[in-house]
């Protein structure tokens, strides 16, 4: 087993005992370490260096979008064909969707008391929507109307 | 003190560059509800969903001015609050009973653009909700649970697709109070609405924006921080069938998966009114 050689400084480092100032090794070392003297952003060849060919520094990073696969639908990552199919499906769903019913605005304290009474009467933990609506209909006279502006 | 929180929404059809007064979505109105004039009403926040960038303008003769009032640029396809951000101290605009707010949008020339306003009534006779603050939540919270529902929105600018909170998973514990901290949506729209018995059937809401999930996930908790007053709604699982989630959006409609972040509370702790250190009639809510 050959012994490991531990150098004092990297090849080309000005303080290394075998560095010849001005030698190709020394010049290469200088080029590699310019960034540490604020001369350049990153070492040459670094994937983020401004002069590295093919760097992705101008790649926009947008929420929900895989920057390396911008063709995929944002947030879902679906392929375009799949996304188009889902959009069609959603369109059909929306066509069949219903607007939400407007519920009567009745004081929660009053309504909760009436619902608790009904639950106790029926011996159930929770009422169905129909049972709840039946209770609400009895309290319809207490419901607040939509506000009207004073001219 | 019968406190109530309500999100009111509306839409403008093909507004283009012209400021167009919003048509209020069915069941909502931009006229402030009638209250005792001595009890404050606050506009806590507002947001809009424009497919094309535009302007949202809210004005009234009783507010700062009736020319431009509260006017904000709305960037395209980004439903974010324009009156305050999460983790910030927020400032509420005082509103006045029966005042008709003029809420207008500009935007696209061939689309429905939408906006919402979140209003707090310190004392709305005939309606009340159960709200807690963060200290109460931390003292009485037990387990976190999420409610996931799928909502098929309508394409008319109205709220649509209301489904009960137990429509997908019926896993709430019987006769138990739950605090709603906020929620998430996977699809962009204008507003996710939550309506229920415990809120007097008034609709609570948060922006339907998937890119600010860190803001909406604890929306009501953040409002509570921001305004320093109890704004975390509480509902009872006994009312689960009549507590619904719906969505208001533009002409694109869409299917929304909505998650509500809830915390199970200790039994019998939340009374009928609000619980916390609210001060009525102050210069700002929670001041």
Give me the secondary-structure topology.
The complex is a heterodimer of chains A (151) and B (287).
Chain A: H1 24-33, H2 80-96, H3 108-122, H4 129-138
Chain B: E1 4-13, E2 20-21, E3 23-24, E4 41-49, E5 54-59, E6 70-74, E7 93-95, E8 102-105, E9 112-121, E10 131-132, H1 134-140, E11 141-153, E12 159-164, E13 177-185, E14 191-195, E15 203-207, H2 213-216, H3 219-227, E16 232-236, E17 244-248, E18 254-265
Antiparallel strand pairs in B: 1-3, 1-9, 2-8, 4-7, 4-9, 5-6, 5-8, 10-16, 11-18, 12-17, 13-16, 13-18, 14-15, 14-17
Structural overview:
The complex is a heterodimer of chains A (151) and B (287). Chain A is mostly helical. Chain A is 34% helix and 0% strand. Among the domains of chain A are: 1-58, no CATH class; 108-144. Chain A has helices at residues 24-33, 80-96, 108-122, 129-138. Chain A is elongated and about 100 Å long. In chain B, a hairpin with a 7-residue loop joins strand 14 (191-195) and strand 15. Chain B has helices at 134-140, 213-216, 219-227, and strands at residues 4-13, 20-21, 23-24, 41-49, 54-59, 70-74, 93-95, 102-105, 112-121, 131-132, 141-153, 159-164, 177-185, 191-195, 203-207, 232-236, 244-248, 254-265. Chain B contains three helices and 18 strands. Chain B has 287 residues and is mainly beta. A five-stranded antiparallel beta sheet of chain B has the order 3-1-9-4-7, with no helix packed on it. A five-stranded antiparallel beta sheet of chain B has the order 10-16-13-18-11. A four-stranded antiparallel beta sheet of chain B has the order 2-8-5-6, with no helix packed on it. Classes of the chains: A mainly alpha (151), B mainly beta (287).
In short:
The complex is a heterodimer of chains A (151) and B (287). By secondary structure, chain A is mainly α. In chain A, 34% of the residues lie in helices and 0% in strands.
């Amino acid at each position: 087993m050959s012994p490991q050689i531990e150098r004092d400084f990297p090849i080309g480092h000005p303080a290394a005992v075998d560095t010849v100032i001005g030698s190709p090794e020394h010049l290469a070392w200088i080029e590699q370490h310019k960034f540490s003297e604020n001369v350049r952003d990153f070492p040459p060849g670094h994937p983020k260096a401004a002069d590295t060919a093919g760097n992705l520094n101008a790649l926009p990073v947008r929420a929900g979008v895989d920057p390396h696969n911008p063709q995929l639908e944002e947030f879902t990552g679906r392929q375009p064909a799949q996304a188009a199919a889902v959009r069609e499906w959603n369109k059909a769903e929306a066509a069949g969707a219903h607007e939400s019913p407007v519920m009567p605005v009745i004081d929660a304290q009053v309504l909760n008391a009436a619902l608790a009474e009904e639950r106790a009467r029926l011996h159930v933990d929770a009422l169905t929507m129909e049972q709840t609506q039946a209770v609400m209909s009895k309290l319809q006279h207490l419901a607040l109307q939509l506000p009207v502006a004073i001219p | 003190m019968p406190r109530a929180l309500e999100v009111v929404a509306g839409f403008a059809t093909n507004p283009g560059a012209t400021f167009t007064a919003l048509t209020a979505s069915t069941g909502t109105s931009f006229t402030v509800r009638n209250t005792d004039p001595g009890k404050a009403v606050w506009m806590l926040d507002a947001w809009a969903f424009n497919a094309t960038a535009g302007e949202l303008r809210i004005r009234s003769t009783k507010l700062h001015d009736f020319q431009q009032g509260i006017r904000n640029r709305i960037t395209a396809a980004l439903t974010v609050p324009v009156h305050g951000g999460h983790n910030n101290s927020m400032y509420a605009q005082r509103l006045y009973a029966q005042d008709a707010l003029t809420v207008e949008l500009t935007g696209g020339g061939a689309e429905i653009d939408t906006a919402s306003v979140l209003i707090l009534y310190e004392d709305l006779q005939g309606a009340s909700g159960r709200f807690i603050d963060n200290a109460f939540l931390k003292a009485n919270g037990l387990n976190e649970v999420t409610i996931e529902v799928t909502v098929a929105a309508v394409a008319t600018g109205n709220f649509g697709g209301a489904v009960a909170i137990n429509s997908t998973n019926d896993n709430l514990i019987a006769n138990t109070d739950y605090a709603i901290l906020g929620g998430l949506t996977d699809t962009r729209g204008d507003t996710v609405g939550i309506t229920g018995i415990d809120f007097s059937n008034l609709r609570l809401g948060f922006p339907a924006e998937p890119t600010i999930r860190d803001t909406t996930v604890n929306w009501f908790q953040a409002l509570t921080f921001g305004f320093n007053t109890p704004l975390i709604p509480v509902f009872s699982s006994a009312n689960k069938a009549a507590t619904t989630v719906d969505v208001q959006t533009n002409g694109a409609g869409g299917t929304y998966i909505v998650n509500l972040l809830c915390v199970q509370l200790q039994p019998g702790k939340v009374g009928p009114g609000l619980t916390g250190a609210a001060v009525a009639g102050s210069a700002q809510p929670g001041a």
